[in-house]
Design a protein that fits this description.
This protein is an alpha+beta fold and 244 residues long. The protein is built from four helices and 17 strands. 18% of the residues lie in helices and 36% in strands. The strands form two sheets. Strands 9, 10, 11, 12, 13, 14, 15, 16 and 17 form a nine-stranded mixed beta sheet that branches. A hairpin with a 6-residue loop joins strand 11 and strand 12. The radius of gyration is 17 Å and the shape is globular. 37% of the residues are buried.
């Protein structure tokens, strides 16, 4: 599994530069018909974060699921309740989950998790989780869909009854967290989460890079990046992905 940061029109340089500095990853040369794509390239391990400048729309996050046969997996996803949005001549398939979360099946090989970055002062952090923000009316169906699609087990959170997570296979760079929102919204959206050894120091580092803190909770801090996208810094261990 890898994640795409879908950037609003005109925000490519701002968004790509910010997330490059947050992660410590290099930005690859731009590619695509409009030079709309780039990859964040870690110093070790394989890439699992990419950026895309949209032609229109507010931006967000979508997932790439790396499989041997995108067409076959798309058919299986449809049987589970997904909707196909586009079958590309290049082999990938774009779908929406039952609740409207966009994801793609792609045929290139899956990625291996890089090591956390070490920052001045000695603390470590890593982008290691995608949180699906799910309206209450579709929460149970969406959890069932992602469980059946990935074949992973669902686990209740020790922090809140609003969260469940899917088991992360060894080497998988990203874990899926499924959050039940308090209020309804039109469709399922998503945001990135970082695991950090020192949340206060990590938050200060992000603020220096241009992020804005919008809320602080017992185990996580909510910020917005310079493009306006929300994300979280959590107290989870960046090596294990788990809370102490």
């Amino acid at each position: 599994m890898s994640a795409f940061l879908d950037l609003p029109p005109g925000s490519f340089e701002t968004g790509a530069t910010f997330w490059s500095r947050v992660t410590g990853y290099d930005v690859s040369p731009r590619r695509g018909e409009r030079d709309e794509f780039a990859t964040l390239v870690p110093g070790d391990g394989d890439d699992f974060l990419r950026v895309q400048e949209l032609e229109h729309g507010p931006g967000g996050i979508h997932l790439d699921l790396h499989v041997d046969s995108p067409a076959q997996e798309a058919d299986r996803a449809v049987a589970l309740g997904a909707r196909v949005q586009h079958r590309s001549e290049h082999g990938y398939v774009v779908l929406d989950s039952p609740g409207g979360m966009t994801f793609c099946f792609v045929g290139h090989r899956a990625s291996h998790r890089p090591a956390p970055a070490v920052w001045p002062g000695g603390h470590r952090s890593l982008v290691d989780q995608v949180c699906l923000d799910i309206p209450p009316s579709s929460y149970d169906a969406e959890c069932t869909f992602w469980r059946d699609l990935t074949g992973e087990s669902l686990h209740a959170s020790s922090v809140s009854t609003q969260f469940q997570s899917l088991t992360r296979s060894a080497g998988q760079p990203l874990r899926l967290l499924l959050q039940r929102l308090d209020d309804e919204q039109e469709r399922v959206t998503a945001h990135l989460d970082l695991a950090a050894e020192d949340r206060e120091a990590e938050t200060a580092r992000h603020e220096e890079l241009g992020a804005v803190v919008v809320g602080s909770h017992t185990r996580w801090t909510v910020l917005t990046d310079p493009v306006g996208a929300a994300y979280c810094i959590t107290d989870r261990d960046p090596v294990t992905g788990l809370l102490a």
